[in-house]
Design brief:
The longest helix has 23 residues, at 493-515. Helices cover 29% and strands 25% of the residues. The chain contains 14 helices and 27 strands. Helix 7 packs across helix 8 (195-206), helix 9 packs parallel to helix 14 and helix 12 runs parallel beside helix 13. It has three domains: 4-193, 3-Layer(aba) Sandwich (Glutaredoxin), CATH 3.40.30; 199-321 and 448-515, FAD/NAD(P)-binding domain (3-Layer(bba) Sandwich); 338-445, FAD/NAD(P)-binding domain (3-Layer(bba) Sandwich). It is globular. The strands form six sheets. The chain has an eight-stranded mixed beta sheet, with helices on one face. Strands 9, 10, 13, 14, 15, 16 and 27 form a seven-stranded mixed beta sheet that branches. A five-stranded parallel beta sheet has the order 18-25-19-20-21, with helices on one face. A hairpin with a 5-residue loop joins strand 23 (420-427) and strand 24. By secondary structure, the protein is of the alpha/beta class.
Length: 537
Amino acid sequence: MLDPALRDQLRTHFTKITRPVVLAMALDDSAAASELEEMLTDVAELSDLIELDDRDDERRPSFAVIRVGTDVAVHFAGVPSGHEFSSLVLAILQVGGHPPNIPEDVARQIEQLEGEHTFETFVSLSCQNCPEVVQALNVMSVLNPRIRHVAIDGARFPDEAERRGVRAVPTVFLDGEEFEQGRTTLEAILSRLDAGVAQRVTDAIAARAPFDVLVIGGGPAGAAAAIYAARKGIRTGLVAERFGGQVLDTVGIENFVSVPYTEGPELVSRLEQHVRDYEVDLITGPRAEAMWTEESGTIAVGLGNGATLHARTVVLATGARWRAVNVPGEHEYRNKGVTYCPHCDGPLFRQKRVAVIGGGNSGVEAAIDLAGLAEHVTLLEYDDRLRADGVLQRKIASLTNVTVRCGAATTEIVGDGRDVNGLTYRDRATGEDHALDVEGVFVQIGLLPNTEWLDGAVRTTDFGEIVVDAAGRTSVPGVFAAGDCTTVPFKQIVTAMGTGSTAALSAFDHLIRSTAPGGDDTPPTRDLAGAAPVPTG
């Protein structure tokens, strides 16, 4: 089942195992069980410290990775292929004695958690966000035997997912009650289990000395800005609610120059490692909520956890998020049938009727993908024609279980109080109202810049984009911006990296000018229409 190259790679990884491990399986007569048995048999052959055994479990097929002679274990229900294969490999390594790659203080906090807890995480194998959550909870169960975690493939156990109201992944249950939906971090989970953790983190952040360059945002633009700043040997910090930003939700990337194909999570992993190769103070978890210039000229950034960071220059690289339809029911049923990621949540709607809102490339691609899973897909486009590329339009026209409705203005998403069960739209040509019986609504109508928190601190357009010139300068001296949150016209990964690099170099130029004897930190021309000559050095 494992190809030779992967087997060789895993054999090398498994040399790090120091404690004997048992892969204990609970199987049935399904094809999935045969697939799981074959996978685990192949894995066990790669190390003398891995053995196979049987176990009893109400979920079949399932298995546990157990440290022999201890209560340390990690549990999986289903076949951990796709994005979850890495979770399996890490679980074997960590149960086998290889220490998790987390800060020592975080490890101690996990070990000191009191009480017994059972976590259950519903995932889909096509979800890019799920592995981080699964791996965080697996680490907790390895370091603290009083914590139990099982990752459940919702598509493999659809009846249980349906019974427990799972409409989006990852969905985490703690001791039988819903605990979290969507991507989260190990630190965020810890802070919810131990309130003291959150306060200690806040105090540690607030104690940071002022930065020369503080980057706000952890996507491609923010990562590039941090790397370029740190390479100048100046004190650099990066704060982001989650590292990776929108790229984490991207499946296939085929236009990143010099890399024919990669996937969002893989690219983010490489970006983070590159950032960590330099002396960048990486702060993840808290969200920036305010920015102002202090009397001393230092720029202050207030975070959602109450801490304040200070810097001589700031690079804003907060990216963008999926745009909402803003109709009644959308917020109420988010993650209860309303979703923004067809790749992650699509498998939960197998053989169900769903709607896709949006007729651009992302909307049409979503409808095409969902057509292979859902009973029927209705695509609603506000305009009187689809805006997707011709090849996508020809493909969707060939699908027998997809209906396209142009000139359709979505008016409400309805449900039974627990889950979505319908949608209404108005025909813009006739004014007639129509109702659809659907169990899922996938919103694909573009992106919205993450700039509301700035609240007038810098000049923005009517669409919320930060106005920048060719050097990434904003309307505030010492504040620069890059990537999808700005007026840069093309929202692409490669352009985000380029503008992030430019913004960092401009910040460095600003620092030089402001500290030189008799220096002037004002560049030759500050033309926010984009015509300013870029200083050279």
